[in-house]
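Quick board copy: two proteins, each given as sequence then tokens.
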Amino acid sequence: MIAAAFLLLAALQDPSPADLARTFLYGTDPESARAREGLASRGPAAIPALIAARKPGANRAEALDDLLFDLKAAAAGDAGRPLFEKLRKFKLSVDMQSAPPSAILDYFREIGGLNLVLDPGLSAELPGVDLILADVPFRKALEGLCGRAKLDYDFRCGVLLLAAPERLWTAAIEPRRTPLTDEETKKARGCIADLGSESPKTRDQ
């Protein structure tokens, strides 16, 4: 009984990311602000809970997108900083109707000069979507595409990868404890270079 009480007390004092996400979205303004601090302190580990809590018409949807962007940018570190700065500051317009997400992504890649990659693990061509936006930050256009196509994005291996949320965030990536061998490094660099290829066939392979 005493042990159970201590566990309950610990849970109350250190809420889970899922609890914090619910409070962030549906609590009072002061509760939401405290929950945001708690989520931010957890870094990328908080992202799966936030993705799971994201529903159509959810409270504080824009604040949720802002928090997710900040967490992804922080996790990307120095390597991803230029990319996230461009997502934040560069503005664009898009008017595409019933367009395949891959075609919209090609347009983003061309106009923004960013290394954007659609997950080759997607089983089939995604349905066409409408995306009509005028003079918005790049990140808003990207988030608009992801929302309509039921995708999400993250900085992985030097590129911005778009994939199904459950593929990106189902499980945390365990850090490798031993350095890559020279052969593994060479192979990894080759794979990353292929992801940035202008040839769709090369990227998919």
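And the next:
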Amino acid sequence: MVQQDKLFFDVFPDYHCPDKFRDLFEHVHVTDVVLSKSDKQLKIYINSRVIIPKGNIYEMEKSLSEYLFQQRMQVKIIEHYELSEQYNISTLTDVYKESLFQEIYHKSNVLYGLVKNAKWYVNENVIHLTLDDTFVSRQRSIYIKNFLEHVYKERFGYDINVGFDFTEEQKEAIRKANEHTLELEVKRIVDRREEIARNNALNEE
């Protein structure tokens, strides 16, 4: 356990960090380290003033697991950010959305598809996601809501409310496609009848 905040590379002084991580983690502080042998997991709590993309967090976890435990134990980095006043919920969402997508992808392909294809609208502390109106969307929306509200609160200190709008967009697209198919079939039948009528008229002559 870390007794007081230390710089990341002071906690792991012998760790030879890949160059691509050096700038990202150089000024990161480690606030706590907790080892759970029963869960085979080392949790590293960090505090940063600069957002670290989630993909880089995952890569650092894997690299540290290899360095410390030869990947026999999982390393989990729990981020907390103290951002400048240039950030608000809207700008944060713009910057961090891809990281949210990556994190959700690690949890569920279904959830990833829903949030990736959703339309996002931010108004002050409210985030609205527009999803297709399906059973899966409505069922999984509760998990998405809890996940996003938890991340914004615990990671960034923002209290947000997540809401959903469900559209008939997908059903409407299918309906229009079916209508178009039907129109083509009707046209084919009409054209065929006209062709038969013309042939009959020629034979009568």
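Board note added afterward: The two ends are 102 Å apart (CA to CA).
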